[in-house]
Amino acid sequence: MATPAFLVLYWLFFSGRMFWPTTMETRRANFRANPLSPALWTWGLGAAALFVVVLESSIFTLFRLIPYPAEQFVPLPMLRDAPTAWLWAAAIVASLVAGICEETGFRGYIQRPLEAHYGPAVAIAITTVAFAALHLNQPWAITLMLPILLASLMLGALAYASRSLLPGIVGHAVMDVFNFSYWWWHLIGTYDKSTVFETGVDFDFVAWAGTLAVSLTLFVLAVLKLLAVRREHHVEGA
Question: Around Cβ 113, how many Cβ atoms within 10 Å?
């Protein structure tokens, strides 16, 4: 119960809805607390769904090109004997914490002020470096560095194009539910494929690499559509 309560307070404070009136407007701006039209919601959530597909297909493709380091994806000892229902609940809550807090901190409070001073390209690049650095304490950070960088670039573009953190929060949280339940906690199976250098190019590799290429292309188109919809309706925002 403590974590959901924390998230509610976190959301209310950093979105500028409680405490210290003198900083409320700045917090609202950094949180990108802008209303979204139905069109922006549609394209934003579509881009968020494509983000999840891109990131997971990039990881599956990566582990057909390099050996899967199973030792880097071992559940914490305290979780090994935990009931499955408890693990699912923990995965969902942990994913919400990561999605809300990381998007607020990186795509909101770091990226948005940088956008105002240096433009979106520089802002997204600096935020991506900071986002990658935050994850360097993880045993899998170097192995997954390319997907980490790709994730931050995509989430940064989504936040800028939609002028909102909400689509990115949804995509980030859904991605982490899958990451926790598959890659780290093995609730829905474990990875056991060998690289294509051992097996040759097969259907599994072609399917994941193709999914990555198609979904990434569609994501770019969705972001461009978000920008077009925003301009069409003269939606600026922070």
Answer: 15
The 3-state secondary structure of 150-198 reads HHHHHHHHHHHHHCCCHHHHHHHHHHHHHHHHHHHCCCCCCCCCCCHHH
Task: Flag whether pLDDT at 234 surpasses 80.
Answer: no
Contact 28, 109 (CB under 8 A): no
- Are the C-beta atoms of residues 221 and 227 closer than 8 Å to each other? no
Distance CA 25, CA 27 (A): 5
Task: Encode 65-104: b = buried (16+ Cβ within 10 Å), e = exposed.
Answer: eeebeeeebeeeeeeeeeeeeebbeebeebbbbbbbbbbb
Mean pLDDT of the region 194-211? 98
The amino acid present at 178, given as its one-letter code, is F
